């Protein structure tokens, strides 16, 4: 099995810039909060675009460089999500109110 290059460095910068440009052209919304992203602002602004991985790199290193695993998010939303599972994995509550 081939070693997967860890996320980071010039390659990640390049991939992020390309994905950001795609999202900006399509006006892609944040996949976490469904609100529009202001593509004119940059980090460390919490409203800035950030590339998020739908399947966390920690659990799915093979998908680190897989464009279909990329999602547009606000930096603040991505950081709030942290290392937890993605929202869909939590699933609907089983508690019957
Ligand atoms: Zn958001």
From TrEMBL:
Q: Where is this region: Disordered?
A: 76-97
* Organism superkingdom: Bacteria
Q: What name appears for this protein in its UniProt entry?
A: HNH endonuclease
